[in-house]
Structure formats: C-alpha cells, structure tokens
Amino acid sequence: MLLHFREMGQGAPLVILHGLFGNSDNWQTLARRWSEAGHRVIVADLRNHGRSFHTPEHSYELMSEDILGLFNHLQLDAATTTLLGHSMGGKASMRFALDHPERLARLVVVDIAPRASDMAHQDDILAGLNAVPVSALETRQQAEDALAQHIPQPSVRQFLLKNLYRLEDNSFAWRQNLAALNEHMQAIGAEITSEQPFLKPALFIRGGKSDYISTEDKLYGIPALFPNSQVETIVNAGHWVHAEAPDAVFGLVDAFATQG
Length: 260
Description:
The chain is α/β, with parallel strands linked by helices. It folds into 2 domains: 5-116 and 192-258, Alpha/Beta hydrolase fold, catalytic domain (Rossmann fold, 3-Layer(aba) Sandwich); 120-184, no CATH class. 38% of the residues lie in helices and 17% in strands. It is globular.
C-alpha cells in the first residue's frame, strides 16, 4: 500500500511528514515556498492519517517501511534527498533514517526527541475526538461544540476539525483512523532506539516554548543516535514551530537541505 502524497517543484527532493492527528495539508504553505526556492517537495500522509490507507496496526517500524515504499515509488536519489518530520512524523523519520541510512542525504526533525514521550497530554484530545458523534452530525459546528467540552483552545479544535470531511451521502467522517490511534497511543510515544547511529547530517529544530526537546536530549539523547547533528532553537515558538515561526523554519530547512 502506497502512502498518499502531493508533489510540487523541481530540484533536490525534500520529503515532509506531519505529526499526530495531522495531515499533509498542515505543511502546504511551507511546501509551496520550498518548491519555489528550488526543491522537489513531496508532502505525504502517514498511515491512518489524511488520505492514506487505514490499518489496525500503527508503529514506527511499520511507518518506516511505508516511507521506504514511497521512496521506492518515487525513485528518490539518496545522494540529494532530505527527509523532514514533525512530532510523530519526526519519530517516523528518525526510525527510517536509522533503518535505511543509505536512502538519505540528511534528516530534519521538528520538535521531538528520540526518547519516549508521555502521551498523557493527548488524553483530552482523544476524549474530545471520541465525544464527537460523527455518524449523527449535521453540521461542523456540532462537532466543534462536542470538542469544546474537552478542548478549550480554539486553535487546537480547528486543527482537529481539518480531519472532518463529508462523504458522498453528505454524512461526516474522520480522515484519521481514530480507533487505531486510540489503541496504539503508547506505541506512538515509544522511544526510538538503534544499535547503529545515523552518521549523516541531521538538523533538529526546537521550539523555545516547547518541552519536547530538553537540554538532556540536546546534550545526550540526540547525539547518541545522531552524532552529526545540530539543534536550532526558535525562541518564541512552541511545539507547532512551523505554524508559529514559518519564516525561521523556512530559512533553516532551505539552507540545510541545499548544503553540500
């Protein structure tokens, strides 16, 4: 099964992977900018997200193989290809880089470390999503009202509602496979490990207001697996670095992806 993807631009390949509950739409604005700057940009939906296939299974090992299938399908040149992932997509990207280092030139990870993540902070989001009576919905506002009982932040609700769409019979459905994500939340928070490090260049972009990459991660956890890495902090951004500081992320990735 092939991941759904969108492609734009010409040049050295830049493959982008979104985070949990996201999809390729989240990166369209930056993807367009990078394509206009001379990159061949491929933005993919990970399994159980967006327009990609749904399966009962969800793990980083499986996502790594999904990414390999996409790379094979696109016949990407390993000498010039950059893989970028945010949050869950960042962990999937790390897993792929460690599993298949020969398929990449460099790696970009946005606001996530290889250590295990405490997924308890997702409880309210899961409660909100599970509270939406999707089969009985008549309007998107009804879905937002249900989410609001658990998720007070309007921006988070709007992000989640991007996954809600109408079927041909005018009923609503989620693009993400909520049942599988519910079941495998622990696996989504799992640590990324490897006996062999990824020796090629790696850029970790950290939000200064986020705790997803700690000082200990920067000093020990990341260099242990990615010894040829650098960590760049965007001071005034949180976990959604690319949405909060798009110009800074654009510049960092553009410069990194075009280095020799």
